[in-house]
Amino acid sequence: MLNVALIGFGLSGRYLQAPFYEANPNFNLKTIVSNSQNPKAYFPAVEVMKSLEEVLADDSIDLVSICSPNDTHYDFAKKCLLANKHVLVEKPFTATVSQAEELIQLAKTQGKVISIFQNRRFDSDFMTVQKIINEGFIGEVLSCEILFNRYKPVLNAKKWKEVMTPANGILYDLGAHIIDQSIVLFGIPQSVWGETFTQREGSEIDDAFDIRLDYGKLKVTLKSSLMVREEGPRYILHGTKGSFVKYGIDVQEDHLKAGILPNMEGFGIEPASNQGILNSDVNGLHFRGTIETLKGDWGILFQNLYEAITGKAELLVKPEEVLEQIKIMEQVKQR
């Protein structure tokens, strides 16, 4: 069993990570660092600390899970590695390519595992899209659009999220997810074009982006905005044999906020109304109909992290892959 310290108790720490550590018998959520929340109200057995330094002084902590503001990720991860801790970093991994490269090399030098919380690799809709592509349901993929929109016209109450820092803005927030998904599906693009822009009144950060990834015959479009009230499709794929279109978004975050935990019946299973539409030739027959969505399971990431740390499996979310994501974000920001 690995002892875990969680740094930060906001949305990610409280809802998206802590419940998975609690549900997995290979982890002991020993410590939570928070200066404003009361973690014991939700996880009575944890020890509450006020600083990262207290955690680093605890030799019993094996893994530090960093859920603090974006601009702290690099510094906190570096301190944890130097203190001989394994590290899971909430996305974005770092603000720059050079920071990511430094952490990757430091982890190798220290003989520690560092991974990134790219949880949306294990969303129900994304895993379904992956299966559709890998099993050739639409043939060779020619076009892929991934959209991650929200409607949040009012500025975030968390002031740090609205301040212009190197790792802030929608590109490093929602963009980190769908750029990562594109790399998982198709690898590194031949070229990148993109722009970020601001749409909300009074906003100081970018809150929308439009990115094009060129893979030769395959073209990938990634879009996101905080000013989309009427949702369109989330995934649109066209191939040589047909198309797949998927509406809706993975329900794990909503389930966790509602108190439906990873080990409860029905967790991660979306409503049938959100099932994707496949229009293609399947085994020589034309088919148009809905495809059952796979169950979402962010727990895969945590179980794999345990197995990677204990030498039982290869790491699924490799920092080298996320380095490629940051290279794309840097190219877009430099425009």
From TrEMBL:
<feature type="domain" description="Gfo/Idh/MocA-like oxidoreductase N-terminal">
    <location>
        <begin position="2"/>
        <end position="116"/>
    </location>
</feature>
<dbReference type="InterPro" id="IPR051317">
    <property type="entry name" value="Gfo/Idh/MocA_oxidoreduct"/>
</dbReference>
<dbReference type="InterPro" id="IPR036291">
    <property type="entry name" value="NAD(P)-bd_dom_sf"/>
</dbReference>
<dbReference type="Pfam" id="PF02894">
    <property type="entry name" value="GFO_IDH_MocA_C"/>
</dbReference>
<dbReference type="InterPro" id="IPR000683">
    <property type="entry name" value="Gfo/Idh/MocA-like_OxRdtase_N"/>
</dbReference>
<protein>
    <submittedName>
        <fullName>Gfo/Idh/MocA family oxidoreductase</fullName>
    </submittedName>
</protein>
<feature type="domain" description="Gfo/Idh/MocA-like oxidoreductase C-terminal">
    <location>
        <begin position="131"/>
        <end position="333"/>
    </location>
</feature>
<keyword id="KW-0560">Oxidoreductase</keyword>
<dbReference type="Pfam" id="PF01408">
    <property type="entry name" value="GFO_IDH_MocA"/>
</dbReference>
<comment type="similarity">
    <text>Belongs to the Gfo/Idh/MocA family.</text>
</comment>
<dbReference type="InterPro" id="IPR004104">
    <property type="entry name" value="Gfo/Idh/MocA-like_OxRdtase_C"/>
</dbReference>
